[in-house]
Amino acid sequence: xxxxxxxxxxxxxxxxxxxxxxxxxxxxxxxxxxxxxxxxxxxxxxxxxxxxxxxxxxxxxxxxxxxxxxxxxxxxxxxxxxxxxxxxxxxxxxxxxxxxxxxxxxxxxxxxxxxxxxxxxxxxxxxxxxxxxxxxxxxxxxxxxxxxxxxxxxxxxxxxxxxxxxxxxxxxxxxxxxxxxxxxxxxxxxxxxxxxxxxxxxxxxxxxxxxxxxxxxxxxxxxxxxxxxxxxxxxxxxxxxxxxxxxxxxxxxxxxxxxxxxxxxxxxxxxxxxxxxxxxxxxxxxxxxxxxxxxxxxxxxxxxxxxxxxxxxxxxxxxxxxxxxxxxxxxxxxxxxxxxxxxxxxxxxxxxxxxxxxxxxxxxxxxxxxxxxxxxxxxxxxxxxxxxxxxxxxxxxxxxxxxxxxxxxxxxxxxxxxxxxxxxxxxxxxxxxxxxxxxxxxxxxxxxxxxxxxxxxxxxxxxxxxxxxxxxxxxxxxxxxxxxxxxxxxxxxxxxxxxxxxxxxxxxxxxxxxxxxxxxxxxxxxxxxxxxxxxxxxxxxxxxxxxxxxxxxxxxxxxxxxxxxxxxxxxxxxxxxxxxxxxxxxxxxxxxxxxxxxxxxxxxxxxxxxxxxxxxxxxxxxxxxxxxxxxxxxxxxxxxxxxxxx
Length: 646
Fold this sequence. Notes:
single chain, 646 residues, alpha/beta, Rossmann fold, 9-stranded mixed β-sheet, membrane, transmembrane helix
C-alpha cells in the first residue's frame, strides 16, 4: 500500500520537478542574464535537486526472500534466519542521509536564490574551489594508481588546479561558463527525470494489471556477472596509448599555464615607478595655498614646438588643511614665446587612477589626456601656456579627492596661482578652464568657486567635455556596467578616507571588496586602463548596494553636482554614444541649469563615445580651439538653452 501511494503521488511530482529543471536549464543556456539572475536561477535549480531527492521514487529492489538463494534453508550473512534484518539499518541510514542531503540542497538553493548579491560571488568561489579539490583528489588517486597512468594523471591534475586558481581572477566569466555547463546539465536531468518517470509509471501500471502489486523491474540482471571483468578482458594499454595520454595532459597543462600567465599580465596592469624625490614635500612648506615650491624641466611626451616643466605647489585638502600637489606646465618654445605675458589655459584632467604612481606628470604622455590635440594646438599654434594639476594624491601624498568637486577645483586654481610665481615664463591672470570627464566636473567646479577662492584670477570661459556633472545619476545608471564599477571602486577607495563617517569600506556589496582593492592599485591611463576595466567586469555585483546609494552616501554624491552660478560662458560637449556619461543624464543636467537661469552652450556629437569625443579627429577638436579663442577675444557667447539639441 505504501509503495502504491508513493508511486501515485511520486509520478506527478517527478513530472513537475522534471519540467521545472528543464525550464531552468533552457533559461540558463538561452537567456542573456546578469550574474545576479544566474545566481537566482541556479539557486532555484539547486533547490529543485533537493526536492527531486525527496519526491522522486527510488527503484524498489526485489525483497531478499524472493531471490534464487532465499528460502527456508537459506541464511543471512549475519547467520540469522531473516535475510532482511542486516539490510534494514543500512536502508534507514541511506534514507536519513538522502533526506539530509535533500534538505541541505533546498536550503542552499533558497539562500542563493533569495540573496543573489551574496550568491553570485559564492557560486564563482565554489566553482573554483571545486576545480581545485577535484585536481587535488585526482593527484592523490594518481599517486596511488598504476604507474603507467600516473604521469598523465598528475599532469592533468596540475592543469585542473591551475585552472581552478585562475577562475578566482575571472569570477563573472567563470559564472558564464558555469551557467552554460550547468544549464546543459539541468536540461539533461529534466529530460532524464521525465523519461524515467514515464517508464516507471508504465511499469507500475503494467504491474497493477498483472495483480502482483509491485513494479516490474524488467529482466533480471546477473549483477555478479555484470560487475565481474576478468583480467584477460581488460583493454590492452600499449606504449602509444600511454604517450598519447601524457601528451594530451601536457598540452592541457601548457594551456592552463598560458591562461594563468595571460590573466596575470592582463589584470595585473603595467608596473609603474613610485614618485621620486621631486614629489616629496620639503621640511618647510609655505602656509598659504598656491605657492610654488619647486620646478623641474620635463622632456617626456612634450609636443614639438613646446617646452614643459613639472611643478610642486601648495594647496588644500578637502577639509581645508594645507596640502601639497604636483602638476605640469607647458608653454611655447622659447623663441615663440616672446616677452609679453602669455594667455593662460587651466586644465582639469580626467580620471587617471587614485594612487600616487598615476600622476599625469609621471606618465609617458603627460599632455595626451582629454583634448590633448586641442591643447597642443593652443600652445604651439596660438602661443598659450597651459597648467595641469595632478590633484592631491597623484604624485604627492593623498588621499586623492576623486570626484570631490570643491577640492579638485582648489587644486586646479592653486596650480594657476603657482604659475604666476614661475620665473621661466610670464602668464596672464585671465584664464580659460578646460576639463574632460572627471576633469569636466572639476572644470565646472573650478568656475563655480573661482571668484570666492582665487579672486586674483579672472575666468573667461569654462569648457567641460563629457563632464561627470550628475554624479549620483551616474552612480545609479552605471552601477552594473564595467566602467561604472571601476569608477565606483575608485570612489570607494578614496572616499572611505575622506568621508570616514560614511563607512563605505564596510558597506560594499558581497564579493566586490576584492575587485575594489585590485582596481585601486591600477591606474586608468595607458595599458592599465584595460586592466582596470577588465577587473571591473569581474566584480559580480554593483559596488554599492541600493540602500547605500539611497542613504548619506547618495546625499554626498548629489552634493558634488555643480549648479553654478558661473562667472563666465560655459560650453558643455557630449558624445551621444557615450557608455559612461549617459547622454540623457547630461541633457537633464543642462536643462536643469538652463531652467535655473544659467546659460549653457550645449553641443552634442552623434556616434562619439566618451573618449572619441576628444580624439584628434573629433569634430569637437577645432571647436574647442575656436571657442577658447573667442572667449579670449571677448566675442559674444552662444548659449542655446532655448533650443537644446535632443
